[in-house]
Amino acid sequence: MFLPKYPDSPTPPPTHITPTAADSAPARRPVPQISVSTGAVAAVLLGGVVLTALLAAVAVSAVSVAVAAVVLRSLLRDHHRR
SS3 for 27? Predict the structure, then answer.
């Protein structure tokens, strides 16, 4: 019922294709010129340095809070045992 119907005598594809002028060299689009000023590069670098410093400060603060929590828990546990 849903079988494909093939033609009785299919034509074979051509065996020899001659290249045309359009096939030999693809068309190239012109690349837009992008100019980057030194101020933009300096701003991006400065922003990266600031963000890295903030991330390091957050990490150090988190570690110090965790150490303080462990010390306080230990002191409170010893105080409750007495």
Answer: coil
